[in-house]
Amino acid sequence: GANGLSAANAQSAGYTVVTNRTGLLGLDTEAATYVSGQFGSTFFPYEYDGLGSLPHLSEMASVALSILDNDPDGFFLMIEGGMIDQACHANNLARTIGETIEFDNAFAAVWAWAQGRDDTLVIVTADHETGGLTVTANNGAGAFPTVTWSTTSHTAANVPVYAWGPGAEHVAGVLDNTDFVGICTPPSIELVSPPDDSTFADASTAFTARTYDGAGL
After folding, report:
1. What is the DSSP secondary structure assignment for residue 53, as one 8-state letter?
2. How far apart are CA 51 and CA 100, in angstroms?
């Protein structure tokens, strides 16, 4: 949404502002560089309820890829299906499923774009689990399963991580979320170490550069 950022501020910083699906899909993705999608002012509607004039997550993903892939230096793109979390907070199964299907559509758009490339790492994961959803019975195609929820909050359950492409071999076993800094950083990029107690007071030596060797930090 546009909460916290006005169209005027974005435009003054050199961004093209789009506010609806028509504007997004009408962008010239070969010419556009800086784009601010200001869709509404807060959370999106659920897919289950219809988005009206707003774009689907898969459409935002496709347009972002079409713009970013013009940069010869490459890019990092994060796509979040944030309304899955909201639906799980509400223990709302129908809306959780609708949001998860659209997240899968967004992944399909990324996957189609990445086919045939040997320079792209694709990672799918979550920042946490919400709701403690458990499927207790499969009620057949076309019917919602029978489920239970254990909470309306986040849980401490581990989340799955899937990866394809160069560097995907480092996604294995149980990982800490901070491990992804190294996994997502190609060997040619200089990483910056945070300061420790001995250097924090001296701004000139607070940060030292180090290179990711492909095996860990």
Report:
1. T
2. 15
Q: Which runs of consecutive H residues, i.e. helices, occur in 133-213?
A: 180-183
pLDDT in tens, 109-124: 999 999 999 999 999 9
Helix (H) or strand (E) holding 86: helix 83-89
Alpha carbon distance 104, 98 (integer Å): 10
The residue with tokens 């988005």 is: 51
Task: Give residues with Cβ within 8 angstroms of 97, minimum separation 6.
Answer: 48, 144
pLDDT in tens, 81-112: 999 999 999 999 999 999 999 999 999 999 99
* Nearby residues of 77 by Cβ (< 8 Å), 6 or more positions away: 61, 64, 65, 68
Which phi and psi (to 5°) does residue 205 adopt? -120, 15
Helix, strand, coil percentages, rounded to 5, for the chain: 30, 15, 55
Q: Are strands 16-18 and 35-37 parallel, antiparallel or unpaired?
A: parallel
Query: Which residues touch 182 (CB under 8 Å, ≥6 apart)?
Result: 170, 191, 212, 216, 217
> What CA–CA distances, in Å, run from 51 to 27, 45, 79, 151, 162?
20, 6, 18, 27, 29
